[in-house]
Description:
Shape: globular
Number of helices: 7
Order of helices and strands: EHEEEEHHEEEHEHHHEEEEEEEE
Distance between the termini: 48 Å
Oligomer: single chain
Structural class: alpha+beta
Radius of gyration: 25 Å
Strand content: 25-35%
Largest sheet: 6 strands, mixed
Amino acid sequence: xxxxxxxxxxxxxxxxxxxxxxxxxxxxxxxxxxxxxxxxxxxxxxxxxxxxxxxxxxxxxxxxxxxxxxxxxxxxxxxxxxxxxxxxxxxxxxxxxxxxxxxxxxxxxxxxxxxxxxxxxxxxxxxxxxxxxxxxxxxxxxxxxxxxxxxxxxxxxxxxxxxxxxxxxxxxxxxxxxxxxxxxxxxxxxxxxxxxxxxxxxxxxxxxxxxxxxxxxxxxxxxxxxxxxxxxxxxxxxxxxxxxxxxxxxxxxxxxxxxxxxxxxxxxxxxxxxxxxxxxxxxxxxxxxxxxxxxxxxxxxxxxxxxxxxxxxxxxxxxxxxxxxxxxxxxxxxxxxxxxxx
Length: 342
């Protein structure tokens, strides 16, 4: 395929696509709240496996005495390469003829390419969001598609992946409050602080609202309690016992035509405050972005989009490409519990 600029330049298509990506991640794919985007002029990521944990305290010394010697954690240094991801869409021969009949200046083809650039960048955003969900809930990212088999284990402690003794589906017998207290103790023992949010599905949330132990705590002292807590009642009782507020997340994407959840419905995840404490989503520089014809000097990292043409038959393509991966640099700032039965 040959790069073309007669309908739209790569800089124009790239700017259009990147704006669509920002909008998508603000409104639909929102796990970047905990793994925010960052750009690097490299293919390589580096982090200390098993990050997070308690801060080691220094010790006082006598005057004229030698300084205490600090120690480094024994965590292994992990390096790897960001994988490429790309997709293209055609404006075929027949469609080009129809569009040119509408507008001989090619404005309709340009509009089609701009619309396709949004679809393409949304598809890339969907795959990156799946990888973010993988990182947060599994402590790893696994890629097994399109002939590519790769993965990275971020080294989360085994104690930070647990299963409720009695699933929340059993609303009368599952001791959800006791489980929360136990899990928060583990999190605090590791990090010296409590998480800031509890990410869960609406199904898990609704079962928590019906949990007998939680309902009785909300209405302690009353002769009876309602069969389901209101949103405000649940929020209040969670706050009273320092349980992090609930964030409901139910995003889905299409994978090979199958509706697929970004995060598991049957698990909850403790998370730190929004920001890059747990990690980042790293975006590298695709080779296309360094091509002078793309005109992306100084802004090469991230998604790059260009228009191309192929012969026999003549087809105009819009192609989006990126090099990206979410990296969970402090995996022990996450904690996952399996709370629902199948």
